[in-house]
C-alpha cells in the first residue's frame, strides 16, 4: 500500500536498542544500526530521524519494556518495602541473566557515556535514572523512616542497580551479583529498622 512502512517499527527499535545497549552510543555506528535493523542509512533517517533521535526512541523503548516490570515489582508488596526492594532486584537479576539480551543495562551504559551525548539525550538519561529513584522512593514510603533517610535509601538502591549492571558486563557471576543484591536488601532492612526504633538516648 502506498505510503505504508514496509517494516515493523517496534522490531527495528528493538534491534537498534540492542546495538546501543551492547556498544554504547559512541560506538553504535550508523552502519551497525543499519545492519541490525535491516534498514539502509536513508531509510533509518526517514523512519527515525538522525542517530540522536533514534537513540531517544530506543531509550523510550527500553523504558517501556523494563520500566513497567520494575514498577510492577516495586508495587507488588504494599506495606513491605524490604520485600518490594527484593522483588525489584529479582527483576533486575532476571534481566541480567537473560541470554537473549546484552549484558548490563542500557541506562547504565548510557549514563557512563554521558560526555558523548548531546544535552537533550544526556538530560533524558538523567531523567530515567531519576524516574527509577522515584519509583523506589514510593515503594519505601510504607515505613516510619524520615524523608531524608528514604531519599538516601532510594538513591542507594538505584546506585546498587547500576553497579550490578556494570559488574555483569565485567563478567561477575550470577552468584556474585545475587550476593551484592542480598547485602543491599539487608542494608535497606537494617536502616529502616533503626529508623523505626527512633534515636538512641545519649549520656
Features:
203 residues; mainly alpha; Tetracycline Repressor, domain 2; 9 helices; 73% helix; 0% strand; DNA binding; transcription regulation; transcription; HTH_TetR
Helices and strands, with pairings:
Elements: H1 9-23, H2 30-37, H3 41-48, H4 51-75, H5 81-97, H6 106-112, H7 119-139, H8 147-169, H9 174-197
Helix pairs in contact: 1-2, 1-4, 1-6, 4-5, 4-7, 5-8, 5-9, 7-8, 8-9
How would you describe this structure to a colleague?
This is TetR/AcrR family transcriptional regulator. It holds the Pfam family TetR_C_13. Residues 6-66 form the HTH tetR-type domain. Residues 29-48 bind DNA. It comes from Streptomyces griseicoloratus. The chain has a domain at 59-196: Tetracycline Repressor, domain 2 (Orthogonal Bundle). The longest helix has 25 residues, at 51-75. By secondary structure, it is mostly helical. It contains 9 helices and no strands. The chain has helices at 9-23, 30-37, 41-48, 51-75, 81-97, 106-112, 119-139, 147-169, 174-197. Helix 1 (9-23) crosses helix 6, helix 7 (119-139) packs across helix 8 and helix 8 (147-169) packs antiparallel against helix 9. The model has no long low-confidence stretch (mean pLDDT 91). Helix content is 73%, strand content 0%. It is elongated. It starts with 8 loop residues before the first helix and ends in a 6-residue tail after the last helix.
